[in-house]
Amino acid sequence: MHSTLIGRAGTLVLAAAQVPLAGAQDLAAGKARADAVCGACHGANGVSVSDTIPNLAGQKSAYLQSQLRALKEGTRKNAIMGAIAAQPSAEYIANVAAHYASLHIGEEVAGGGEPGGVLGVP
């Protein structure tokens, strides 16, 4: 009986490992969206192009998602970001947030750029 329980438990663990996690973020999709939409203002590596625009690199995914949802719902006001955040789906937001959360200080710039200061920005 003991070996039967262990065998069943092992089967459940293997079966669970094969099922994709609900809400798992797609970093490649998040990077593609960030490059196409967000990078113009928030920088190619999440370091903004202006002191008045927040850096997104290294921020917690949950924080970024909550801020984008607040902009989308209108509970946080910003004329530019309100219009941009009104469009994406929850999946889009999760993917972009996961991408920016995955960026770490001191990484080289993607595409062969020079390593430098924060996130490879010299």
Automatic annotation (TrEMBL):
Entry keyword Translocase: no
Species for this entry: Ramlibacter montanisoli
Record has Mitochondrion as a keyword: no
Single GO term (MF): metal ion binding
Pfam families in alphabetical order: Cytochrom_C
Domain spans labelled Cytochrome c: 25-104
InterPro entries per the UniProt record, alphabetical: Cyt_c-like_dom, Cyt_c-like_dom_sf, Cytochrome_c_Oxidase_Subunit
Keywords: Electron transport, Heme, Iron, Metal-binding, Transport
Source organism superkingdom: Bacteria
SUPFAM superfamilies linked to this entry: Cytochrome c (SSF46626)
Protein name: Cytochrome c
Cited PANTHER family: CBB3-TYPE CYTOCHROME C OXIDASE SUBUNIT FIXP, CYTOCHROME C4
